[in-house]
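notes to self, project folder thing:

trying the whole complex as one job this time. last attempt i did each chain seperately and stitching them together was a nightmare. two parts in total, labels are on each line so i dont mix them up again. if this works i'll redo the older ones the same way
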Amino acid sequence: MQSTDLDNKITGRRRVVQKSLEYACYSAVTLTAILMIIFFATLGYRGIGAFTQTKIEVDVVEVQSTSKKSINEAMYRLVKEPDRSTKKGLRQLVTPNAYSTIDITEAGTYVLVAHTNVDMYVKGVYDKLTDSQREVVDILISAGKIYRTWNWSFWTNSDSRSPEIAGIWGAMVGTFYTIGLALIFAFPIGVGCATYMEEFPKKRNSWTYDFMEININNLAAVPSIVYGLLGLAVFIQFFGMPRSASLVGGLTLGILTLPTIVIACRTALRTVPQSVRDASNGLGASRLQTTIYQVLPAALPGIITGTIIGIARAIGESAPLLMIGMVAFILTAPTGILDPATSLPVQIYLWADSPERGFAEKTSAAILILLLILVTLNLLAIWLRKRFEIKWK
Amino acid sequence: MEIETRNTLTLTKSQKIEVRNLNIWYGDAHAIKDASLKIRKNNVTALIGPSGCGKSTFLRALNRMNDFIDDCVTKGSVGIDGTDIYRTQYTNVNNLRKSVGMVFQKPNPFPKSIYDNVAYGPQLHRMHESKAHLDEIVKRSLQKANLWDEVKNRLTSEAFSLSGGQQQRLCIARTLAVEPQVVLLDEPCSALDPISTNAIEQLILELKKSYTIVMVTHNMQQAKRISDTTAYFHLGEIVEVGATKKIFGNPNHRSTRAYVSGEFG
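result (full assembly):
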């Protein structure tokens, strides 16, 4: 009897083709991973500085008429009999915003935020200090009067002209409002549209159905800046909504997300087997009841996953927001949907465009945070799908 | 005379369903050709025939499930208790499907708990007065389907956790929960093992005491074991109808004899 040799290895040309394909796939994956690591490492290396802040301790001996004068006088004491230019240099060791944020009423030691030049010098990024400034700073560093701390103000402040106190809070709130509105706007319409197209196809070859089908597929491929133009023309020009408001941003991003949600939702509805619809209809449920009670709940994990991925795309979107004026310089976080606002990607764009070197690390840090949000959302989508997906038998 | 009776289908007391001159097309394909059949109350009527002969289409016509198929056209009349379900456009199709329930070829429970599967129908039609009443309906339906003893301790577990035979009995319980008068079974045992099949067959014999049962089956032994009347379909036509003993013992038609003796199928 002839026996089958199962241990016999695949040889010859077949093996070469199989192996080379295998290695091509491996190397593609490895290359992607390496590029991702380089990307994150660069961002991390450049952005890590933004999470710490340089503080300067100022000993106020006599209180002057204003905080500004008190601080300036305290700074002049650091050098014996300073001349005019030295005085100017000493004044500029402290952030110019310190005067308005602190109220000095009695003598003592005050901790102030150092000027961006000091900050950069301490972090070793670059040295733009004058000789007299550097001398004083070196002395203060060795005396422990200038030191780095965790930068809370990066999380709690909004944008500023001075890089040392600029933060992302305002942009985060703006993103939150915009994306929340986009979700409220796009989710019901998207799910409704997909449900109509999948569950109520009365006449599949009617021109309305074809029209919708073509529209949805084309909308998904439209460049995002075009949505910005649409938002500008329709919401601001025609409906007269306020410029730079998160309301307009939300509606615009909602339209942008709509095709993604519709396509994901249709796919999810198609995975629900026909037998479920038959079972429900066979019990005397109307088409609508079947859809609401059986088909939509069964498709929900897929719908939510698709929506999260659509929303993740919208979070990273900046081009349409530029068109509708959300590229504004906003000093305080918006308190409502009609307030001027900006969003995280637009904030990154603004900072990347700034001439001050101090904004470079803020830009990298903000990109890191944005990427972290996106990764979290995508992980959430994967988890939801794994957790709630129905295994049809 | 013929025209008059078309509008008021008169049935004798023992008849439940009367199908008259039923024609069904899928697009251009003529699936059912001029089929007429009378179905008796509290009887098991088996529809047999080779694949693609239109048995399932015929069965689905009895509760208008074919309406969901886009290019399906139905002509003719199906009278249930004397009412033509196709003639009046005002027929409440949902109520029709409630009183003519259907069990499908593959067990198709909803992806929910056992309890929710059975409770879904009564909830749809608001048949229950209270939560306790709904519990009672669920219990009674599961008992009728001989499933209660097996699942009474795990009503909240997933329906998919049941075996295939249990799932099919759950689907029968779900159908019974909305109190139908007619139960249509579309090859209910084709996906089941012999033991589960036996359980379902015993169940059908019990159910025929209170319901009118029409079933499609590929298994001729099964038709022989449990049906009272058998209709033999061939190429969309009803070739022969008669008592099961007659069809399997001494059929009139050559084609029927060939099929039941296993010459083709």
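what i see at first glance: The radius of gyration of chain A is 30 Å.
need to look closer tmrw
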